[in-house]
## 1
Amino acid sequence: MILIAERINTGFSEVKNALENRDPAVIKDLARKQTDAGADYLDISLGAASKDPEDMVWLVGAVQDEVDTGLCIDAQKREIVEPALQTCQGDALINSTTAQEEKMEELIPLAADYGASIIGVTSDEDGSPQDVAGRLQLASTIFRRADSAGLEPDDLFIDPVAMPLKYMQEQASNLLEAISQLKNLSDPRPHLSLGLSNMSSEASERSLINRTFLVMAMASGLDAAICDVLDQKLINSVATAEMVLNNEIYSDSFVETYRMD
Amino acid sequence: MDIPEVKNSWEDEITSVTIGATEEDGGTRSSTVTIGGETAAPFLDFEGSVPNRPALGLEVWDVPPEGWPSLLKEPIEDVMNDPVGWARKYEEEFDPELLCLKLEGCKPGGKDKSPEEAAKTVEKVMEATSLPMIIWGCGDDDKDNDVFTQVSPAVSGENCLLGTITEDNYRTLAALGMADGHKVVAESPVDINIAKQVNTLAREAGFALEDLVIFPTSPSLGYGNEYVYSIMERSRLAGLKGDKLMGQPLMANIGGEVWKAKEAKAPEAERPGWGEPEKRGPAWEATTALNYLQAGADLIVIRHPKAFEETETTVDRLMSDKD
């Protein structure tokens, strides 16, 4: 499972304050903790707090001063993404393009030029389709575009869009079905990823919903998620699911061994 | 139509383990041997890198072996009462990459030699030889812990490979390995889950995964060989896919099991249709070795010199440049 850690996001006030005060300690601490918890990528998001490329570059720098974990540049505009990619020293993942022509035109060649991976979200100018077929159609559009830009399937993460369970309960089963069909999009297949926390947005028992859904999605074929890696129960569930799916060899210490991987 | 590309690309590298220390490294060996380091399935160097040749060692005992068939005793008849002479003979005549000194004489039900005696024997053997050394306990947990407590510091800095730690007995040997600069063999009884668990325990005890060699035991051809074949194969593929707890070199120590098999040791009179024992026995051991090589073994300890020579030739062939 490719874990993309979500906490370096200005939606959290400590991150927002750290960015405004140029105080790297908080950022470094989050980078370290999320890396130790098993993150493969650290998502870095300016959220609504800033549109300034220099802010993104500063966050990337602060994180890189502490860890060499892959970075997930959470921005949809070239003027923010490109300076971040120039600063990024290790693996980079762009989060994200949609299936809109002008977004793909702006971001997919950038991924190819910088040797980065990219998340393609199944949305377009009409929004995010709720049905399975609509998700598959947009995923194919993104896949073809990425392929013709020279990206390998391994460099592409398709995100079929998690919607809040509380308000769109019927969406969860559509999403699971979309994931199992997306597995067959190509061979080798692209990664399949979700913004997991959307699932439980504004619901009670968020952590329980997140980990239950994640395990079900993994069984359907999901192999990446943007999530709260500091949620220990979530990671324990991932470790167990990886073992049940026979992706990890069982040992009596399987929870600890998963964390060290 | 194009033939589809079938080669795999792997995410991770098997750890490289060096055994032995030359004067430069603080030891007295004339050479060292490095195993592991692959980024490809066994011998498939078109997939990645196979930087080190599998190493072959010959087995020497600290006491005259009882119960060995005459075929096995014949090459060592003149030296089997003397581990120093035995080790020197093997080093001079067969030039293996390393030697494996088994402290069989320490077995409580047998000669029950003291830890001090064992340490003296090890020191003498190492003085008389110059190859990297594997030191193998007698198999009794408590006794081995006492024995290694003397043996390990006696050859401190020689970077030996000490065997073995198990799920139930790992703390002493792991601590000694760290203190005296030795590598350690992690043993598990034909069980991949326990293999992973032993490595986890060793790591939790502070022992570096980079200093371990996995030994999933090594049944003889015809007696469960295929179980460990599939365990080795699965461990190796998991290691190459990034499982850090399965990413260590693999070893087999085959003599004890092979030479229990009637196919290896039965005299001609007993089994007239099976061909000459002089060829059959070593062939049984060499074939067992070959299976483990193909499964991914990076180190094999062999008992019969002829089987050793046969396996060396096989490794030469498998490692030769095919292009």
## 2
Amino acid sequence: MTPIDSISPQTSMRLRRIALILLIAGLHLSVPALLGAESRERFASAYLWGYAFLWSVTLGSLFFLGLHHLTHARWSVVIRRVMEMLAAPATGMLAALFIPVVLMLLLHGHFSLFPWADAAHVAEDPILAGKRPYLNSPFFLARAALYLAVWAGFTRHFLRQSFRQDAGDDAVGAVLRMRRMGAPFMMAFAVTVSFAAIDWLMSLNPHWFSTIFGVYVFSGMALSGLAALTLAVIALRNSGRLPEGCVTTDHLYNLGALLFGFSAFWAYIAFSQYMLIWYANMPEETFYIHDRLQGGWLGVSVALALARFVIPFFLLLPRRAKRHARTLVVVSVIVLAGQWLDLFWLIMPERHAAGPVIGWQELGPPLALAGALLLSLSRFLARRPCLAVGDPLLEESMRFRL
Amino acid sequence: MSELRHKQVGVAGLYDDPSALVRAAVEVRRAGYTRWDCHTPYPVHGLDTAMGIPESPVGGIGLLAGFAGLGTAIGLTGWLSAWHYPIHIGGKPLFSWQAFVPIYFELFVLFAGLTVMGLVFALGRLGRWHSPLHDSGIMPEVTCDRFAIVLEASDPNYSEDAARALLAQTGCRDIRPLIEYEEEDDAFL
Amino acid sequence: MSADTSILKPAPLIEGRITPRELDDAVFAPVESFPTGRWLIAVSVTGAIALLFPICIANTILNGIGTWGVNQPVGWGLAIVNFVFWVGIGHAGTLISAILFLFRQKWRTGIARFAEAMTIFAVFCAMQFPLFHTGRPWLAMFWLIPYPNDQRIYQNFRSPLEWDVFAVGTYGLISFMFWYLGLIPDLATARDRAKHPFRKFVYGLLSVGWSGSNRAWTHYEKAYLMFAGLSTPLVLSVHSIVSFDFAVSVIPGWHTTIFPPYFVAGAIFSGFAMVATLIVILRRMFHLKHIITDNHLDLMNKIVIVTSLMVGYAYAMEFFIAWYGGVAVERYVFMNRAMGPYAWAYWTMVICNVVVPQLLWIRRVRRSVLLMYPIVLLINVGMWFERFVIVITSLHRDYLPSSWGMYIPTWTDIGLFVGSFGIFLTFILLFCRFLPSVSVTEMKAALLHTQSAHGGDHE
């Protein structure tokens, strides 16, 4: 197959330009936000918002990469490199961008992001005092370091083996080595993501608790990873970087079916959490849902259900829609918007109880972090071919038919 | 039993290989036959296209029925719980959709499932126990490992010689008459 | 590609080469031959055990629910434990037939039919318990199903018990239709293979005139896909709704949001353990080792370990959040589970469900009947105890210490449980005798693919 051998890394000037514009605009908005006392607090929440989005896309893709290896999947070999590209920020960037969160926690007086970090507040609240063995800054930071190290370690392993294949170096052995790490990765992933969700998102309201929360955050994460993957695959195909005949409508169908399935999965998890809390109506947990169903937040909650479940579900319901590239692009964009909204819904009510507030103070960090993500993708594309050219199963994967 | 009166109702050609069947089906279709069918031990990939069978409406109608079930469930729970027989339980609102969602979902699935099953019987013409394939002795081969094309005599294009010639032309080496016993309607008894 | 990539591909579906006719002969052999002595002994033993069920039911009906060990504070006893246990067993069948079908896992073909049959029998057993728990089951129909009536009294649709009526009822019906749909072409094969006119008549009647017509196949295939698509969310919903029975309450240890996915994972876990337990006997009894191979056991055991880890995750998360939530009674209930009077049940559950299955990480254990068998048996035990722990320990000590108490099952409770196993196993044995326990139709289609592809690799 000649076209495959000719695939080489290609810089995308357009992607880089968009990334830089976003990054500069974001930084431009962030600096003044950091100077004012009130806008600084809003900056803190917004930074977490943007960071959590970056985290979702990266780890969502890493999840599908790990799943690919765990299940010994063969159809997805053609899109494996795209998953690796999207997961690549986990090797270092994700940890580097966590540093501002660390600083905001340590300078709690200026940012007041996590209520449990305020010693005076905790002292007069017996419930928070009881949680001190878990919710304290040193332990929180140690856990975060552990999560980030685990994700970086596995991602590095997968990427290193994959790049070795490109060089034609023991390709079969590399597949076996990647597969061998599939199961340990999944176990580590389940534990770290759940506890990261509890630490970074649930503990914003340290009184509230829900056992399904880790699964809830995971379901949104998987969806956003999948949507990013679909968008990237279609964009690379349309721009000719992925050669003709590599990614067929049958591959797209699988992505569409997974998007459809995970939308339903998110709805299932979200409804289970909501309905059980609504039904039992116990004060120690209902307040969280109640806060999000009053004032301006009601509209956000309804929009969340629409963007996350109703619209993607009905758009993808016809069999034909799942293989139609343009429909998939529309759905993926809605799903990614849904992830922004979901994280907004989780984070922001803790800051603005009355209703959603969004101004330039909120926009800086998400724009800058989205820019950083795109910049990392463009750097990846400039260095590596966007197809796992060395994988011995590549040809079989290209021949995949439903 | 030995001297059952029977009549010939068509011609059947048997194949050993599914891909030969698919190729033959293209030929038969091209020859303009309308009352004909393929009989196979398992669904053969690509045969629907070869025969020119349109996509089955089972999926679409099944989904519609599912939505009808959803509507029924919304109506049933809402009407009974909020209007016809309103009872306050656990401080919940009378129309508490959150608590009805499980029933919405189950009736969606139930209606869709029953409709799909009904459609397979109706559209697939199941429940007609008699078939000339039994009388011709072809059925046991078809349900085991062979593939048959049946050209029915009721087809306006049909003539026995032409049908046999067409099947022979597709590479069929086992062409048999399709016969039907002229018995009373108690065939399966 | 010059490197040998065969190591990266899945193992062949069956061992050796087999023609469609040989496949029919192998699968229909138990259906068409006179029952062996072993089978007759087995069915008389399970039949005798099954008799316990009507005896204990008679006792329940004649003397009332008081013959069960339920009382204040434990108002839900073994009957509900058994209900959840049996519904859970059923879930593996639907998972194999629907979810693995949608994921195009070809290996499911060998075990799908059997697992689906198991689902139906398990759901049948499950339904008996809540039905007789109503006290007067002959009136239950009027209580449970909304129908226009003179009294103008209707069901409370907000009750999770009413959701169960819809969920388990739909599940039973849909599973049955899915199973029957899959059976129709095989029943036609049975009809055409039959020599005796009576056999021909019965299988002919059941196969509803199936003639393998491609004009029927096209609807059939679409319908099969639809059933798979409908059953997949259905199977999630059923055990989720069963979990709602507990989780919508305010009882500590019951009300926790992870219950729906946790119950579903547990159900699949227990169901796969049960499939493995029975299919090992089946393939030995009926000489199907070349069709249900060690690769099947290997893959099933992999799913067992995945679901075992999911269940372990839920145990751990529940424990952690019980502490993290800071609610005193919640903390107490979990400490009570691990160290109270029912600690033996709790630790049986943890050891059987989370600790022992870790042995399945070893490839040799997964593929050896002798080594895996004790593990899957223990999982069956452990999953029953999981439901016991959930139902009993949460109720026996809740908010009001003055009404704390213990639950001791009576002989009727135990007889019903043992008897339900008898019914289940008898059904399974009858199924294996009278219906093809492997889908020959699907198997032939799959063989065509794999054998020709396999042959191609060597050329």
